[in-house]
Fold this protein.
Amino acid sequence: RTYYHQLEAYYKLTNKLVWTNYIGWERIIANYSTLVNPVTSRPKNQEGWGFATGLDIEMSKGAGLYIRQRWMNYQDRSFSKDQYKGWETTVEIKIFF
């Protein structure tokens, strides 16, 4: 089972510039037919959150520049080494035909 809860907000700053925001929570619960931890005999039990902010910039009618900064924190209660937290920055140019 996988659960996603997300909230996104967009604020138009100008005709060509939009400020974007995101917050989300994710939970993944596996069953015993999947890989289990050999020590605890428990299946995957992951939980995490993330939030992001960024800008959408319209470069032309069919092209845009998308910049995002995202922070995240994930852990698995059944697999002690499956934990990570950090951040990522993405910059994309999208062209629409």
About this structure: The CA atoms of residues 2 and 28 lie 4 Å apart. The two ends are 37 Å apart (CA to CA). The beta strands are 2-14, 17-29, 45-60, 63-76, 83-95. The longest strand covers residues 45-60.
